[in-house]
Design brief:
Elements lengths: L5 H14 L1 H11 L1 H10 L7 E5 L7 H4 L5 E6 L2 H13 L5 E5 L12 E7 L8 H11 E12 L5 H14 L9 H10 L2 E14 H7 L7 H16 L8 E2 L13 E14 L1
Parallel strand pairs: 1-2, 1-4, 2-3, 4-5
Antiparallel strand pairs: 5-8, 6-8, 7-8
Length: 273
């Protein structure tokens, strides 16, 4: 965490995701369908379930979960993201998806009121991930399931630190991504019994990764993030990105090659006893 207060972090998140609502929303809703369906399977989503998608963004999980559950609430800090999710729900004829403006660290749900609570790629934006997981556990009924999908950093703290510094250069609303062992400990400490975990690794284009964050070649943020990543390529220091230069397109007007990097994500599901 970079020393900002909860209020400052919320404002930073709203600003970042308001400005990238369209480009990020297009990416997340289109490209993360498979991930949403995987998490629905791991938390055993069923048609009787009352559910919530925390820090839902453009409805990355909620739009897919709606076809599996009785109803689901998409909760997010950013009105622009909820507006985009609502438009998607209307255009797809989804009538069991509802929307709320709220903070994943202080949920507007009663104790033991939900069957399933999920969140995707949000823990690395919040000041205290522990509060999110404990809130998830609080609002779940006994036997209810919690599911988290997030980026993963190496277990080695030095490698994780390098990775998180690069992530912050790309996105100043990033706080700290966690290693798998820490996420699983948060579940156990909140009284959630582990029922499933899976890893997923896929290749991403650096240029596309920065585009989703709202940056393009020549932008200061693009230049600094690339500089930091290339420095690790020269030194051989681990970040979990495993970056390498992509082949240069002979038709490209810019001779500087793109970079291929690996993103590892983790799915964790737990059950409240």
């Amino acid at each position: 965490m970079n020393g900002t207060s909860d209020r400052q972090q919320r404002e930073l998140i709203r600003d970042r995701f308001t400005r990238t609502a369209e480009v990020f929303g297009n990416f997340a809703v289109k490209e993360r369908v498979r991930e949403a369906e995987t998490l629905a399977r791991l938390v055993r989503a069923s048609e009787e379930d009352r559910a919530a998608d925390l820090a839902s963004g453009p409805g990355t999980l909620a739009l897919r979960f709606a076809k599996h559950v009785h109803w689901i609430v998409a909760l997010d800090l950013t009105p622009a993201m909820l507006h985009r999710a609502r438009k998607s729900a209307v255009s797809n004829g989804i009538s069991n998806l509802f929307f709320g403006l709220g903070d994943a660290q202080a949920l507007p749900f009663g104790d033991a009121s939900l069957d399933v609570v999920v969140t995707s790629y949000s823990l690395h934006h919040v000041p205290e991930p522990k509060r999110v997981i404990h809130e998830m556990a609080r609002v779940l009924r006994p036997g209810g399931r919690a599911g988290v999908l997030d980026m993963l950093v190496p277990e080695d703290p030095h490698a994780a630190g390098r990775r998180n510094r690069i992530e912050v250069a790309r996105d100043p609303s990033h706080t700290r991504a966690l290693p798998q062992s820490e996420i699983e400990k948060l579940f156990r400490d909140a009284g959630l019994r582990m029922i499933a975990n899976e890893l997923d690794q896929h290749t991403r284009s650096f240029d596309q990764w920065l585009h989703v964050a709202g940056w393009h070649r020549g932008d200061r943020e693009y230049v600094e993030t690339r500089r930091m990543l290339e420095a690790t390529m020269k030194s051989g220091e681990d970040t979990g990105f495993y970056p390498k230069f992509a082949p240069v397109d002979p038709q490209a007007t810019d001779p500087v090659p793109d970079i291929e990097l690996q993103q590892t994500s983790v799915f964790v599901a737990g059950e409240k006893s």
